[in-house]
Amino acid sequence: MLTYIIRRLLVLPIVVLGCIVLVFSVMQLLTPYQRLSVYCSNPAELKNVDFEILIERYGLNDPIYKQFADWFMEILRGELGWSESASRPVSGAFKRFMPVSAELALWSALPLVLGGVWLGSLSAVKHNKPLDHIMRIFAITGWSLPTFVAGLLGLFLFYGILGWFPPGQLGLEASAIVRSSVFASYTGIITLDAVLNWNWFVFADALRHLILPVFVLSLVSWAMLLRVTRASMLETLRQDYVTTARAKGLEERVVIKKHARRNALIPVVTIAGVTVAFLFNGLVITETIFDFHGLGRWAARAAQTFDLPALLGYLLFNGVLIVFANLIVDIMYAYIDPRVRLG
Amino acid sequence: MTTFIKLIKNPLGLIGLTLLIFFIVVGILAPVLAPPAWQNEPYRIPRDGYSSTPKPPSPEHPFGTAEGQYDIYYGLIWGTRTAWTVSLVVVVLSAFIGITIGTIAAFYGGILDEILMRITDIFYAFPFLVGAMVLTTILGRGLGNVMIALIALGWMGYARLIRADILQIREVEYVQAARAIGASSLRLMLRHMLPNAIWPVVVQGTMSMGSIVITAAALSFLGVGAPLGYADWGQLISYARNWILGLHGNPLAYWYVIIYPSIAITLFCLSWNLVGDALRDILDPRLRGTQ
Amino acid sequence: MKKIWLVGLVFVFVLSTLALGQEIHNPDTIVRIEYGTVNTLDPAYSYDTASGAVMFNVMENLVMWPMGTVDGDETDLSYSLATGDLLPMLATVVPTVDNGLIVNYPDGSVTYQFPIRTGVEFHAGGTLTPEDVEYTFERAILQDRDGGPIWMYIEPLSGQEYWRLYQVVEAVLGIDTNKGETIKDLTPEQQAQVYAAIASWVEITPTGDVVFTLDASYPPFLTILAHAAGWGAILDKEWVIEQGGWDGEADTWAAWYNPGGGQAAEESELYDVMNGTGPYMLDHWDPGIEIVYERFDGYWREPAAIKTVVDKKIQEWSDRLLLFGRGDADICSVDPQYLPQVMGQPGIVTTLNLPTLGLNPAGFFTSDINLEGNDLVGSGTLAEDGIPSEFFNDVHMRKAFAYAFEYQTYIDDVLGVAGGYRTHGPVPKAFGWAYDDRPELYYTFDIEKATEEMKLAHGGEVWDTGFTFTLLYNEGNQGRRVIAEILEKNIESMNPKFHIDVRGVPWASYLDRMVTEQMPLFVIGWLADFPDPHNFVVPFAHSTGTFSGWQGSTLVAMFAEKYDPLTSAAMATAVQAERAAIYYQIEQMSYDDCYDLWLPQVNGYRVMRDWVQGYAFNPLFPDVYYYSVYKAYE
């Protein structure tokens, strides 16, 4: 097991590198002017701009391996470059945006997993009964409803009419407090910092702004988790050892808890890895709709405006994250199902 | 054939199948149900003027018009064809690529498996939505490019799935028995392992049919999907983005812009899900024994 | 512990649900929501509207414009854009010929003399002195970043001989600087030489006034300095030096020249810090997210009424609408097509039909289209499946397109509730004195005339052969797409052999095609830098114009031959009637040459909560002037 992990970790840099090379090559499909465009979005500023000189300066006409080598050297020096779409250095963009996404993802994770897995098991146990059908229909509808529709409708109802959950991360007052010197930002994750600062007003305000986006973010993945859990629970419930356990006279509840659920988790774990990716994609739209300045939204803007430094930086980060997540999934998978050899 | 009969007997499966047949019929009859305004551009939704404000359903526009005066009815009808095209092409091609790679990796194992799985990891590490956005921004908007992006970033799931299944099956007795008899490896793979390993992939494929349509809609929302004015459900929904809140005092003023395309997408996904679930119930070999 | 914050949560909910009444939200704060990125806080660097809006509130200029008011209760349009109506700001008197502060010399040069106000404090503690003013302008000129606004100073101050610093350097030193690339390597002696050449442009008189010397008359000079122009904002010399800026010495300035090559605003030492004399201080800037101002109580006039201003950048229209509707935002940016969603909402006032100052958008024909690697032109020959490079070289072809555009449909459908007006360029309608309003100068939508012109185009060949080309539009803008589709529909209706494809591309690709002159027709717009026809005539009708420069060699040659001399002539005299006559001539020629498609312009409008009062109005202003705003019901 240990050798397996080490081997996978050693391969990690290669994987991330491969990802980066992929993006770099794709970017070469752009003309130098297109890659320059991220710097010139204001028509007035086009006067007196010598594009030839700019292309020279940024090395946009250099051979691809030179551009790549230059960029790589900078990365090793810790210089990730400047992100035009974020109006700040790439490293600064991570500092600013990551805590926001992390906060959303973390608050979503628990309801997501608990809800999805619990509802899925429930649905499986009540297989083909009305509850099962209802939950499946609900899951599919929630899943196929485009995220932004759910988000905007939610905003309309819970803010437009009721005034409960406004868009954005914080209200005016809480914002001023967080900015001021009275409030120490330890992590950038506002709810966490509020607790650390023992400031319950800010905590409540942040939570109030989180409820709707977290719900919307979970909505999509909920359905997926529910389906997969249900499907694999159904399978497991029919296994021989479950029948045996039932025949032995064990209580149904115990049968489910001890036997069925553990084995049903196999494909769920597989899906969990995919869910992480899903969550990140969901962040893109959720952050856009609710005006959260997080990584997803930044990445989307970077993609739309060809902000190469930002994209490469995001890819680096994302690559490392996903590879680790997949590694963990594979390990857990092997752990749960001893039949799978880690050959 | 027996599978089909069993599918019909399954009540939810029947509903799903009926819906699918409905969508197939609509897709085929599109030119009849909604005659194109431009003969060589049937997917271009006719515009009745250029005004931004959506107009409610009327005799000329049974489902109303979206922002920019695009006829919603026309968009939904031809959008059915688009939905079929995109989902079928993407699912079939990405499944094909995924299955090929996954089977080879699982069967031969060793260093080939390692390389192929790492390549899969590389593609996995690519943030899907952002990656699709980059590709479509570079290649340009257009359905073909959207499909390329979705295939390029979607085959990995199939590869992993089939690899995991084959790894399990390798240990099952009848395969070992076949080996003992001395069956050749390719034969082994094709005749014994693949047919049994493939069912989870098929079920996954049916799930994807719906999710591809949803993802394409998300790409349209982000501004990198089908071109503007193209008959595509996702496009139609994204037109609703700035009108969901309606007018003051009349929040449902533009209900039709959201409701109709949403129903189309939801029903399409629902039907594939129901069929997929029913198929899974029928085709799972471990279940077969107990029925 | 849990119960406490749970109770608190519930309390907050209930409270907010109850707060549905019309009481004024956040009485001490103004919340403005919009979209638009501030690029830099360096006045000499900033050339975009959003950055200019920050300078507008935090810093001040020598002179300022009279302003009107637009709010819930009144629409007072007593603003002015005439030089003669300028008011003193950091100068105590506005120079005029009458008060002797503008002097015209026999050799053609002109001086403008500004007595500087005393007792004015900067936010960071300094006091305004004439040295600050001199330093501000010298620093700007010696920085002259690529793509920046400083050409607006160099052009008048050099007597319209140059418009970039590197040209001055090359003339003074007799060397080639590769468009300024080698200025960084100048020796101190060389730097001193250059400095000596420009030092005379801005100097301090023995009496402590600041005097500008122009080598030739430049009628709109005062308007370039006026408040609303970010690049005219006055800096505190000592403070800038503290931030790491140029020390003001003659032989050291090259190190601060063109920071970041003009496209890396963060290289300037004043990128993210600001210190001005204005009524508001910069409290906090979160780039791309929000900017917060705090009232400056040491302001030289009466301090502002509102204590805090929060300017939030929110891209999502629905979010803005919701915040605005609930009163959590006071002033909101609304795109014209979404006006119906705010109008009629209780608590919100919309004022329509306000004057604007700009030509945005306008359509540009490209002569001698670049065929290399160009997929927009089909076969690239005069045949049904393409267009030749000289497609729009023929004036009849251009006129045909001008007659084929449905101007009124565009106004009705695209501009909608906001409404719009017809205009012909290159002088905007707002300059009444220079705008020739005769109906003969407008192209009307007339398919018959379009057909006539089309039949004359290219010796009549086009009508028989037909053509195909692709019209690109910049994505993200529905209006731009409609322009393309209107042309497509009407051109194709003339002759079944005419084919136009419409395709949307992102800005990056659009810019690429514009610069490489691949698009047969491109659409882009210009907003005023300063209120004078000259600021429009150059970008649209000059051989070196920002946009006209991309219209292909034939049109550029035409501009050079026919329009450049007129443009210069219009600047050579200060007599308004004479200038007007020349601009009239230019407009007549513009009609005859039809080098651009003059599209209808949207009317101005303002949207705000009904408790917002004192909203200052002048079409030149980059954004809200918070000094005059207060919140009350009247």
Describe the protein's architecture and organization.
The complex is a heterotrimer of chains A (343), B (291) and C (634). With 343 residues, chain A is mostly helical. Chain A has helices spanning 2-27, 32-36, 51-57, 64-76, 90-125, 130-144, 147-161, 172-179, 190-196, 200-237, 240-247, 252-290, 295-305, 308-336, and strands at residues 82-83, 88-89. Chain A contains 14 helices and two strands. In chain A, a hairpin with a 4-residue loop joins strand 1 (82-83) and strand 2. With 291 residues, chain B is mostly helical. With 634 residues, chain C is of the alpha+beta class. Chain C folds into three domains: 2-76 and 274-355 and 604-631, Periplasmic binding protein-like II (D-Maltodextrin-Binding Protein, domain 2); 83-261, Alpha-Beta Complex (Dipeptide-binding Protein, domain 1), CATH 3.90.76; 358-602, Dipeptide-binding Protein, Domain 3 (Dipeptide-binding Protein, domain 3, Roll), CATH 3.10.105. Chain C is 32% helix and 18% strand. In chain C, strands 10-11-12-1-13 form a five-stranded mixed beta sheet, covered by helices on one side. The chains are: A mainly alpha (343), B mainly alpha (291), C alpha+beta (634). Chains A and C meet through helix 2, helix 3, strand 2, helix 7 and helix 8 of A and helix 1, strand 12, helix 9, helix 16 and strand 20 of C.
Gyration radius of chain B, in Å: 22 Å
**Which CATH-level-2 architecture of the largest domain in chain A?**
Orthogonal Bundle
Give the CATH level 1 class of the largest domain in chain A. Answer: Mainly Alpha
Query: Which regions of chain A contain 5 or more consecutive residues with pLDDT less than 50?
Result: none
Portion in strands of chain B:
under 5%
Number of helical regions of chain A:
14
Terminal Cα separation of chain B, in Å? Answer: 17 Å
Please report the distance between the alpha carbons of the first and last residues of chain A.
10 Å
Work out the helicity level of chain B.
over 70%
Q: What class would the helix/strand composition of chain B place it in? A: mainly alpha
The structural class of chain A is: mainly alpha
Mean pLDDT of chain B: 82
Large-scale geometry of chain A = globular
What are the low-pLDDT stretches of chain B, counting only 5+ consecutive residues below 50?
A: 286-291
| Main sheet record of chain B | none
- Tell me the number of strands of chain A: 2
Shape label of chain B: elongated
Pair with the most extensive interface?
Answer: A-C, 61 and 67 residues
Portion in strands of chain A: under 5%
Number of helices of chain B: 13
Please, how many domains of chain A?
A: 2
